[in-house]
Design brief:
The structure is a single chain. The protein has about 230 residues and is α/β, with parallel strands linked by helices. The protein has one domain: Spore Coat Polysaccharide Biosynthesis Protein SpsA, Chain A (Alpha-Beta Complex). The chain contains 6 helices and 11 strands. The strands form 3 sheets. Strands 1, 4, 5, 6, 9, 10 and 11 form a 7-stranded mixed sheet that branches. It has a two-stranded antiparallel sheet with strand order 2-3. The two termini are about 30 Å apart. The model has no long low-confidence stretch (mean pLDDT about 95). This is Pseudaminic acid cytidylyltransferase.
Length: about 230
């Protein structure tokens, strides 16, 4: 931890998930899935506070049982389907300020990110500090070149989005990445002034595809459990 700069971990876990009801606290290989994010943050020993931002009393009780704190509940305006992560972070920072606590830097960790571990959190923080970035997040390379994407046009036909790439070799196409959807290291002043996570001074931390899985459906959940077991087998 940087001298004089206390860090906060913000785990965002609202109660109203639609695609998988109660997703943030469902058992993942026998443990509430949120517990993986909480324990990764605690075990990193980076944070002065490991807090959960939620609007749900059951999630709050479970988070506290796992070692996190819930110093206040999330507002209704930031607990619906349209509230953004940056808005939630800004709300937490301001609520702490009202209590006389200032965090220059923090990390927002999603509650359904069982692949996050203390080592990757430390690596992300080091990159934020050393590179003087505003935000750092894990990213993963697309498994197939998106430059050869196809899309539906009409009457069942498909067409290439970029036909000029048809004859190019895969190795000659630029690697392209996407957000792994796990955590975001951030500087608080940037979040408060811009209210967004992606800007001109943002860096990605490349992670392997085997340690990334979106969990939006029950099939995604099963795949995540399989991947987790493969990564953690003895």
């Amino acid at each position: 931890m940087q001298e004089g700069n206390k860090l906060v971990a913000i785990i965002t876990a609202r109660g109203g998930s639609k695609r998988i009801p109660r997703k943030n606290i469902l058992p993942f290989l026998g443990r509430p899935i949120i517990s993986y994010s909480i324990h990764a943050a605690l075990e990193s020993q980076l944070f002065a506070e490991v807090m959960v931002s939620t609007d749900d009393e059951e999630i709050a009780r479970m988070a506290e049982a796992e070692g996190a704190i819930v110093p206040f509940f999330r507002s209704k305006e930031n607990a619906d389907d349209f509230s953004g992560t940056a808005d939630v972070i800004a709300e937490v920072i301001m609520r702490y300020k009202e209590r006389g606590m200032t965090f220059e830097t923090g990390c927002c960790i999603y509650p359904t990110a069982p692949f996050v571990n203390p080592g990757i959190l430390k690596e992300g923080y080091k990159k934020l500090v050393d590179g003087k970035f505003d935000v750092v997040f894990p990213m993963v390379k697309y498994s197939y070149p998106i430059q050869r994407s196809i899309h539906k046009v009409e009457n069942g036909k498909v067409a290439m989005l970029w036909p000029e790439n048809y004859h190019k070799r895969s190795q000659d196409l630029e690697p392209v990445y996407h957000d792994a959807g796990q955590f975001y290291w951030f500087r608080s002043d940037y979040i408060l002034s811009h209210k967004k996570l992606f800007g001109d001074n943002v860096a990605g931390l490349e992670v392997e595809e085997k340690s990334v899985q979106d969990i939006d459906t029950l099939s995604d959940w099963e795949l995540a459990e399989i991947k987790y077991q493969l990564l953690n087998r003895k």
